[in-house]
Each structure stands twice: as structure tokens, then as C-alpha cells.
Amino acid sequence: MQSQKLTVAVFLGAVIAFFALGVYTYQQRNQSAVADTLTQEASRLVRPSSTVLGPMNAPVTIVEFFDPACETCRAFYPLVKDLMRKHPADIRLVMRYAPFHQGSDHVVKLLEAAKLQDKYVPVLEMVLAAQPLWAEHHQPKIELAYQAAAQAGLDVPKALEDAKAPAIQALLAQDMEDIVALKVTKTPTFFVNGRALPSFGAEELQALVSQELAKVKR
After folding, report:
1. How many structural domains comprise the chain?
2. Domain Thioredoxin spans what residues (predicted)?
3. Which residues pair with 192 in a beta bridge?
4. pTM of this prediction?
5. pLDDT tens, residue by residue, 8-50
């Protein structure tokens, strides 16, 4: 009986070890593939037309592919903002759009039009605050997003007219093209100084930012 238990234990240990090795190998291959893509497509991370928050010459650049209807993007916004608050001279945030949710493209265009009224950040934050109302259950109620933008002081009728500008259409089209090239499949997706997170999570983002900040301080 003792021998049988030992055999079972050894067998289970081997299965667990084999599974762990498989997971590790998959993660390594995946990270290597992402790194190769970033090397080949690095110029796609930041475009001249990209929205930049924070100092333009900051040594640490966080690129976020973002969907205004994404609950996780909403949850991460305070975290990223806190990192920027703690390191005001060292971090800049580049906002790229990945409007995967239905109707998000309308809100993206409104955000870009808000820049023309110098209302980008207040509109962004008000739209995120109202997200549970206008993006509930993936059934967008865009009018509610527009109402939230108006509460932030945006002249919504003018912004909707400005949102038809070819430059804004082109920016969104460019972001969509870059999403495909960079193989961004979910939001938020972060890159820090051209490096992808080893795995998704708040701690992983903070750790990668800390690594890049440490390089600056050397």
C-alpha cells in the first residue's frame, strides 16, 4: 500500500511538473513573440497625432491602448494617474485608442474633438465616471456619454461637428491599423518604454514603470 501511494505521488508530481514546464514554455514563447513584434513595429507605438499627457520629454513613456467603454480601463485610470502624480517630471502617458466596444468610436471622436476646446482631460474623466450609465452591459447609450461631456464644460454640438474632421477620422483609422500590427487584442494594453507587461496586472504595470524609472535615476 505504501508503495502504491509513493507511485501515485511520483506520478502526480511528474504531471504537475510537466504542466508547469508547459505553462512556462508557453509564456516564454509568447513574451518572445511580443518582443519581436515590438522590435519590428516600434514606430507604431507613438504617432505624432497621439494624445500625450504629462511632459513631452519625460524619460518614461507609458503607451496605453484604451477603450472609453472598457471597465478595466476605467479601473486603471486612477492607478496610472497616481503614478504620474508621484513622478510628474518623469512619466508621460500616450493615449492610443482601441474602441473594441460597440459605440466606443463615437466617444473616441468626441474626446479628440474635446482637445480643440482644451477640455480633453475633464471630458475624459467625466466620461469615465459616467461609464456605468452609458456603457452598461455593452448596450451603449451614447447620448448619456455626450451629456457627461457637457457636464465637463464641453460644447457638445460644436464638438460633434468638429469630430467629423478628416484629421480625427485619420487618427482613429491609424490607431486601428496599429492595433492590428502590434497585435493588441484587449484593453487596456500597456507598453512602458517600448516594453510589454510580462503579464497583465496593476502590480506588473507598477513594477515595469519602477524598472524604467530606476534606469533614469542611475
Report:
1. 2
2. 10-214
3. 62, 195
4. 0.82
5. 676 666 666 655 555 555 555 556 666 777 777 788 999 999 9
The pLDDT score that the predictor gives to residue 18 is 54
Domain encompassing residue 147: 51-217
CA–CA separation, 141 and 195 (whole Å) = 35
Residues 27 and 89 in one domain: no
Phi-psi region of 139 (alpha: psi -120 to 50; beta: other; left: phi over 0): beta
Q: How far is CA 188 from CA 19, 69, 93, 120, in A?
A: 29, 11, 13, 19
DSSP 8-state class, residue 187: S
Task: Output the pLDDT for position 42.
Answer: 83
Quick one: 105 and 189 in the same domain?
yes
Assess whether 72 and 33 both reside in one domain.
no
What is the β-pairing status of strands 91-97 and 189-192? Answer: unpaired
Q: Which residues, in sequence order, are CB contacts of 38 under 8 Å at separation 6+? A: 45, 182, 191, 194, 195, 196
Q: What is the CATH number of the domain that holds 172?
A: 3.40.30.10
Q: Which neighbouring-strand residues pair with 190?
A: 64
Does one domain contain both 35 and 131? no
Q: Are residues 187 and 210 in the same domain?
A: yes
